[in-house]
Amino acid sequence: MKRICFITDSIFKSGGMQRVTAVIAEELTKYYDVTIVSFEDPKQQNLSMYGLKDYPVKIVFTHFRKTEKWKSMLYNAYSYLYKNALPKTAITSDLYAHSSFPREMREAVVKILKEGQFDTIIAVNSYLSMRLATIKRDLGGVKAIGWIYNSFNAFLREASPYLGTELKYHYGRQLQKLDETVLLYLQDSEMYYHAYGFSPFVIPNPLTLKPGAPSTGKNKRFLAVGRLTPKHKGFDLLIKAFDKFAQRNSDWYLDIVGDGPEKEALNKMIENRYLTKRIKIHPFTENIQMFYSQASIYVSSSRWKDFGLVLVQAMAHGLPVISSDLPSSKEILGDFGMYFKNGNVDDLAQRLEDATHMEWQLKSNEAIMIAQRFNANVIAEQWKTLIESDGQRKRKSKIR
């Protein structure tokens, strides 16, 4: 039986990345000996989290060794020069890879990974994918896979909090050292091909929520779920659009479920529009299935992409979906989605109105069928195909 290893910053924290990693690892135990190597405090271990106690997944804890102060200063100086002054070449990129991941750290990680005698190692996130690329040669014949959650533009745009344009060459240069890179969206894979000359494998995230009772469509309620942060989820747009919709429709209500720094501002918007009896913001709950089951239509007003697990969760409960016309949403929903122009309040208000007149049961049946494509066992089969493949990627001679 092949030995598979996931390396991750954490697995015992509450988060989408941790949950997805656990679900995929659990499913792959049907075919492989699976280990998760985590860079978190062993005291965080909680095997009841994400159901890990019910699967033969091994957990190994490690940490990055500290580097001597004078060495850190030297490495930091080179890192600064690479980002701001040096030409972007293969040599300078590789030197930067080593200066940002000093030898003491590399040797400690290589040691623990070699001890596991793994056949395939999967780095969970872009940061660890870069680290895995740096040490791949030291790991012998292991198959190395980088699993990237960030979108291409979010990761490499100017002033990005992640890498930004100054590290665009370096990022591509290092990822080329891996056997495979996995992304969530086909659109991003095409961007990688045009920028770097290789096409990452595309595997969507699985449905990680056990669905509750399917919606009956009898409750005239729209639902939106997500963290209440500025701009991203577009809840401000949704409230404005519902205000316009409510001026000609007195039957429907809107539930928003989530927590975050924008909650007070959003509640103020609702109060100013005299909609407190029509729109309610509910705190996030582990029993989110209850809200999906009681709603009739799901609304995603996001301004920019992330992997729309909530879209899949909504469809798994039989909810038709209204969504902004983001390419990422279209990859998930296809022709099923009812789209409005991203950021356009009037267009969203019209979609809300249109949705109240559709043949609900037909849409609901279609939603459940589409959601089945994202079942954990289906997505795990795609991972199995990748693990068993020869690792050859379509390449061009773009990065030297």
Characterization of the model:
This protein has 400 residues and is of the alpha/beta class. It folds into two domains: 3-206 and 378-388, Rossmann fold (3-Layer(aba) Sandwich); 221-373, Glycogen Phosphorylase B (Rossmann fold), CATH 3.40.50.2000. Helix content is 41%, strand content 14%. The protein has helices at residues 16-28, 69-84, 90-99, 103-115, 126-135, 152-156, 168-175, 186-196, 235-246, 263-272, 289-294, 309-316, 327-333, 345-355, 360-371, 376-388, and strands spanning 3-8, 33-38, 57-61, 120-124, 143-147, 180-183, 201-202, 221-225, 253-257, 279-282, 297-300, 321-324, 338-340. Strands 3-2-1-4-5-6-7 form a seven-stranded parallel beta sheet. Strand 1, helix 1 (16-28) and strand 2 (33-38) form a beta-alpha-beta unit. The longest helix is centred in the first third of the chain and has 16 residues, at 69-84. The model has no long low-confidence stretch (mean pLDDT 91). It comes from Xylanibacter ruminicola (Prevotella ruminicola). This is Glycosyltransferase family 4 protein. Residues 216-363 form the Glycosyl transferase family domain. GO terms for molecular function: glycosyltransferase activity.
